[in-house]
Design goal:
The structure holds two protein chains of two kinds. By secondary structure, chain A is an alpha+beta fold. In chain A, 23% of the residues lie in helices and 30% in strands. Chain A has helices spanning 25-35, 45-50, 60-75; strands at 18-19, 79-88, 99-108, 113-121, 127-137. Chain B is elongated. Chain B has a single domain, classed as Hotdog Thioesterase (Thiol Ester Dehydrase, Chain A, Roll), CATH 3.10.129.10. The chains are: A alpha+beta, B mainly beta. The A-B interface holds A 20-21, 27, 30-31, 33-37, 39, 41, 51-52, 59-62, 64-66, 68-69, 71-73, 77, 80-88 and B 23, 26-27, 29-33, 35, 37, 47, 53, 55-57, 60-61, 63, 74-88, 135.
């Protein structure tokens, strides 16, 4: 997606969603290696079932990573993601196709910051990860 | 409770973490994030950075163990996570990181009592300037 400049971003805008490719088990193995989170409930079905899950579940931090991708894509090179806060509300499984949504809820001219409400959904209207982000725009952007 | 409230206030040793280009690329690739700031050093330099930029959730890779905190739980769930930045983290720098237990509390849940553990991590450059903070809530 195209990044959005300071003069283009407005409170109330519902930004173009970011649709992720379907989660694959191999992605969870890659994420475990890259992040250092080797909890086997993300990579081993047998362990996951032993703790009462239907099978492996995705790392919550992978979903937060998707929202970070979306927020950073919005600000592009005009600034940076200065804050991201999320709550993990529902589990994500292999095969899930996730969509990242963001809505502009604040714009502070003095601080050059934009506040976003962000969420991840599998089915419309049912958020699995919800939170908020702040984008700090550079003075020249 | 699976964790005693006496751990509140306990801190880790501070640990200096080197931010490596390879680790950033591997992390961005695992997420599938195509942002060139994370993988294309020339692009990052063209936009004013000394080297590759780290994605916002990159500090999840920082392991800063707290010896006072021993978790013995079969199942650990991640409840909430927050990161705040003074500026982005850039490859080639070193950050001094410290983590601290800020709260432990219990709530009744569907499957019985749940223990919430809240920890904070702070990362400073080697001159002592704050770069980022993180706040994590896990459920035991």
């Amino acid at each position: 997606m195209h990044s959005i400049r300071w003069d283009e971003i407005e409170v109330g805008q519902q930004l173009e969603p970011l649709i992720q490719t379907a989660i694959e088990k191999v992605q969870l193995v890659k994420y475990a290696g890259a992040s250092g989170d080797f909890n086997p409930i993300h990579t081993d079905d047998e362990t996951a079932r032993k703790v009462g899950l239907p099978g492996v579940i995705a790392h919550g931090m992978l979903s937060m990573g998707f929202l970070a991708e979306h927020a950073a894509g919005i600000v592009g090179t005009h600034g940076f993601v200065s804050r991201l806060k999320v709550r993990f509300a529902g589990m994500v499984f292999p095969g899930d196709v996730l969509t990242c949504h963001a809505k502009v809820v604040a714009k502070d001219e003095k601080e050059r910051t934009v506040g976003l409400e962000v969420r991840i959904e599998r089915e419309e209207g049912k958020a699995l990860t919800v939170g908020e982000a702040s984008l700090t725009y550079y003075q020249t952007a | 409770m699976v964790l005693d409230r006496s751990v509140i206030g306990s801190t880790s040793e501070s640990k200096v973490i080197e931010i490596e280009k390879g680790a950033i690329r591997t992390f961005a690739n695992a997420i599938g994030d195509p942002n060139p700031l994370y993988t294309d050093e020339e692009f990052a330099k063209k936009h004013g950075f000394a080297s590759l930029v780290a994605p916002p959730t990159f500090p999840t890779t920082f392991r800063v163990p707290n010896p006072n905190l021993q978790i013995k739980a079969a199942r650990v769930l991640h409840g909430e996570q927050e990161y705040s930045y003074v500026r982005p983290i850039v490859a080639g720098e070193s950050l001094r990181c410290t983590s601290k237990v800020v709260d432990v509390y219990e709530r009744a849940g569907k499957l019985g009592a749940m223990t919430f553990l809240v920890t904070e991590i702070r990362g400073e450059d080697l001159d002592g300037n704050l770069v980022f903070t993180g706040r994590s809530t896990i459920i035991l």
